[in-house]
Amino acid sequence: MGGGHHDLFAAVNLGLLGVKTLVVDRFPRVGDNWRTRYETLALHNKTDMCHFPYMPFPYSFPEHLPKDKVADWIAAYVEAMEVNYWTSTEFYGGEYLEELESWRVDVRRADGTVRTMYPKHVVITTGGVGGRPNIPSLPEIDSFEGEVLHTKEFRSGEDFVGRRVLVVGVGTSGHDTVCALRYHWADVTMMQRGPVAVVNMDSANMCYPTVYADGTPLEEADLIGMAGFVYPLLTAGFRQLGAMVAERDKSLPDALAAVGMQIDNDERGWVWKFYEEFSGYYINVGASELVAKGEIALIQAKDASVFVPDGLTMTDGSKLPFDAVVLATGYHNQQLEMEHFFGADVAAKVGRIGGFDEVGELRNAFKPTAQPGLRFATSRFASGRSLAPHMAAMIKGQLEGFAPKKRHGFIAEVGGTHFNSR
Fold first, then answer.
1. pLDDT tens profile 334-363
2. Which of 383, 379, 384, 354 is nearest to 369 (CA)?
3. Which of 48, 75, 377, 403 is a plausible cystine mate for 31, CB 3.0–4.6 Å?
4. pTM of the full predicted structure?
5. Helix/strand/coil for 145
């Protein structure tokens, strides 16, 4: 359920093992989950790392794919790989029937009819770590008479030409948004609520193995890349990379700090924040220079007082006029999706999705969870290519009766320490 690349990676690999699958997506067109996002969105990973399994991108594709090209490729992939894909279909949720060892789920089709199904397994792939926007409680925001929207609804800076816009948040979507607004001659101010890690694009790519660009076969490159995720070497590698990036990019955070930006100095660096929090970082593709030069104003949330009908009052008594507020405040964890679809008990049983568990694996991703028959897919394209085949094999094994149906996690000894992943 989700309709993005992780859903397709799972469906294709299950199909190769002879497992019948159905992908459901609420959008009317295949690929709309990418196509409908803001116009300047592009992949930060190079195209060499983002190939779809069994159908790699052509060599003619650009180094960093824009979101519409990703959307169109998803549509082509569904057709070429013969994925059973229902558009305009809303997943309502369901319950697990212990006696049948299957789910009862309801979906609503485009014509309004509700279909009840009984799948053995449900895989949720509704975003990096979640698909529901995080809408913060801002003082007296309801009194503001201008437009208020989340970045999930933001499409183009062209809609805000000449307007005074406050962007709340300084992560990736916040920087992308202010950049798009500024290029369309909006008067833009960013509000920072917490420290952010900032890294230049070329430095960010230092975390990825060079084998993705030197002609090494993709499957071998993925194996080499995943080999770096070995606990407890994982955090040590992040710290080493963080130190290298901090030295290489020292002038960038210094320039931003000089105009008042709070810089996150966690020695584990931006990669840790990507996996563990999926927020709190920005890979610079141009917005940092605009902020450092003062072309985009910056204020701190601690200096703001309350919203008023035509703007925001500050603690020093001054007022900043705004015509619109864009909330670049990220998304809730997929655990909230789980609670919405399956209830609080299931959400509490499974716990948080994403980040690293106690043995250094992606938490509750691509593997059995505490809830039988429920799995999640998240993280990078490369992670999906590497882990979706294993997830498919485990599901096939459970369906055929030669793999445990309720077991999740494992017991391992790492560095002389005994770990038990629940």
1. 788 788 889 899 989 988 888 888 777 788
2. 354
3. 75
4. 0.82
5. coil
